[in-house]
Design brief:
It is a single chain. This protein has about 525 residues and is an alpha/beta fold. Helix content is about 30%, strand content about 15%. Strands 1, 2, 3, 4, 5, 6, 17 and 18 form an eight-stranded mixed beta sheet that branches. A five-stranded parallel beta sheet has the order 7-16-8-9-12, with helices on one face. The longest helix is centred in the C-terminal third of the chain and has 22 residues. It binds ligand NA7. The site of ligand NA7 has 23 residues, from helix 5.
């Protein structure tokens, strides 16, 4: 494209987004380099190696669809894939498409600065090297920067400290150890049953209880796999037509349109199917509070059936909107609290005071343990952007532009930062749809856009501020219609003290979003300035 830069495009991150971006760009003849902070590829699935880590989207759908050969040859073993299996899949893709040679591992991008004079991006790497590229593609992932609450005295704690999102590669043996887990989100709900089986004692510190639906995980049936593979394109098309980009059986009528007995029957049926599809039992569960309350009551009753001690069951059963925080998918989570070696400590009213040499205290009461697991989640959606010193026109730091919350046009670009693309950025469906599906859609759109610019001899693309403002307004309006925006969750930076509370992903649904992106492209990239 131009020999004045080191590369045509630099991609930051070698997770599923970075891998496919590299594959596509190289296929189009661009000079590309991917920088990855980890010592291996796979992004989220490289870092989150905690015990019990699994995807909560079914494996036959949580995979790339860009290559028919790839989706035919890869064999998933279970309904929900484990973290090691997903990482093996990422490795398989990298090898199959010869991606490793253009990926530089162990390299953190410290700064990315737009040079207005030459319309190029200058990236500073942690080793001090500087590289230049026409395009900078941020493939940073939505849940990549861990949230480690700053508890007083943590440095005095003599035991081991872990975070689920930065798990040691050699694994951790908790045998004969007293372990603490802080947090009861999805990572905790997956890891607690496994840790409890190993540890001498497990103490769980819960600030907010979470709803979880059983995974009913099992090996995949060969007949089922054969049937899907016979028409994989058909399944993908059905998934693409769904709000969530994932296909599952769901009902298109209200929880109020049936009587109480019928409603219970339908919930029972969806409970038996398990997983995230539970919220597909009725079509108004995430928009009508009274409809939602019927689902929440059903799941609360199930939790009470599972937990022997009624007082403990009360603490574990959320009184909130089901699905407001991301719904969890579990395998024996609630039953784990029936074990003699597991204790639940409620920190909803009295927060954790801080750490001591031998554990932590809550309202002055000591809880001692040998190891603590922070299952405290992530600085979601924007954390991985704001930890890089990104500067656009006039040296404007992205941090400053996003001070009151992220502002993007379609979650793909942000005004003032020309030639910088985001894959599944804030303002796009991303985490509200199946990630790999949304990644492929973004990558294909960006590569088409670059091709269009190449054909026209253009070297600069930038979102128009007015169109960006209108999109942000639309993203906010859509969020306001959903019950999902009514509680503190990582969708709006809930766990991070001081973060502006802005609902970050686009909740209008995957099909509408795809239509919007396609219409923008068809109208010569309406809402963008090209030069
Ligand atoms: P989540 O879902 O953000 O969960 C984090 C948990 O940590 C949650 O229960 C928080 O309670 C708790 N937390 C955070 N800070 C504190 C402090 N200071 N004290 C006590 N408890 C705290 O992260 P996960 O890693 O579990 O899951 C993230 C996503 O990954 C998941 O939704 C799936 O999509 C995959 P809170 O609810 O804020 O009161």
């Amino acid at each position: 494209m131009t020999s004045a830069t080191d590369f045509d495009a630099v991609v930051v991150g070698a997770g599923f987004a970075g891998l496919y971006m590299l594959h596509r760009l190289r296929g189009e003849g661009y000079r590309v380099r991917v920088y990855e902070a980890g010592a291996g590829i796979g992004g989220t699935w490289y870092w989150n190696r905690y015990p019990g880590a699994r995807c909560d989207v079914e494996s036959m759908q949580y995979s790339y669809q860009f290559s028919e050969e790839l989706q035919q040859e890869w064999e998933w073993s279970e309904k929900y894939a484990t973290q090691p299996e997903i990482l093996d899949y990422a490795e398989h893709v990298a090898e199959r498409f010869d991606l490793h040679r253009d990926i530089q591992l162990n390299t953190t991008v410290a700064a990315a600065v737009y040079d207005e004079g030459g319309d190029v991006w200058r990236l500073e790497l942690d080793g001090g090297d500087v590289v230049t590229a026409r395009y900078c593609v941020m493939a940073l992932g939505c849940l990549s920067t861990t949230n480690k609450p700053d508890f007083p005295g943590l440095e005095d704690f003599q035991g081991a400290v872990y975070h689920t999102g930065e798990w040691p590669h050699e694994g951790v043996d908790f045998t004969s150890r007293r372990v603490a887990v802080i947090g009861t989100g999805s990572s905790a709900i997956q890891s607690i049953p496994v840790i409890a089986e190993q540890a001498e004692h497990l103490t769980v510190f819960q600030r907010t209880p979470n709803f979880a639906i059983p995974a009913w995980n099992a090996p995949l049936e060969p007949d089922e796999v054969r049937a899907i593979k016979a028409d994989y394109a058909g399944l993908r098309a059905k998934a693409k037509a769904r709000q969530t980009g994932v296909y599952f059986l769901s009902n298109e009528f209200s929880a109020h349109s049936v009587n109480a007995a019928e409603r219970e029957g339908i919930y029972e049926e969806f409970w038996t199917r398990g997983g995230l599809s539970f919220l597909g039992a009725f079509d108004d569960l995430l928009v009508d509070e009274t409809a939602n309350a019927t689902a929440a009551a059903f799941v609360r009753a199930k939790i009470r059936e599972k937990v022997a001690n009624p007082a403990l069951a009360d603490l574990l059963a959320p009184q909130t909107i089901i699905g407001c925080k991301r719904l969890c998918v579990d395998s024996g989570y609630f039953e784990t609290f029936n074990r003699d070696n597991v204790t639940l400590v409620d920190v909803s009213e009295d927060a954790i005071d801080g750490f001591t040499a031998s554990g932590l205290t809550v309202a002055g009461a000591a809880h001692n343990f040998d190891a603590v697991v922070f299952a405290t989640g992530f600085d979601a959606m924007t954390g991985s952007f704001t930890r890089i010193d990104i500067r656009g026109r006039d040296g404007l730091p992205l941090n400053r532009k996003w001070e009151a919350g992220p502002r993007t046009y379609l979650g793909l670009c942000t005004a003032g930062f020309p030639n910088m693309f985001m894959i599944t950025g804030p303002g796009s469906p991303s985490v509200l749809a199946s990630m790999i599906q949304t990644i492929e859609q973004h990558v294909d759109w960006i590569v088409d856009c670059m091709g269009h610019m190449r054909d026209k001899g253009q070297v600069m693309i930038e979102a128009e501020l007015a169109d960006e403002d209108a999109w942000v307004e639309h993203v906010n309006e859509a969020a306001a219609k959903s019950l999902r925006s009514t509680c503190s969750s990582w969708y709006l930076g809930g766990s991070i003290p001081g973060r502006p509370r802005v609902f970050m992903p686009y909740i209008g649904g995957f099909p509408i979003y795809v239509e919007k992106c396609d219409s923008v492209a068809a109208a010569d990239y309406a809402g963008f300035r090209l030069a």
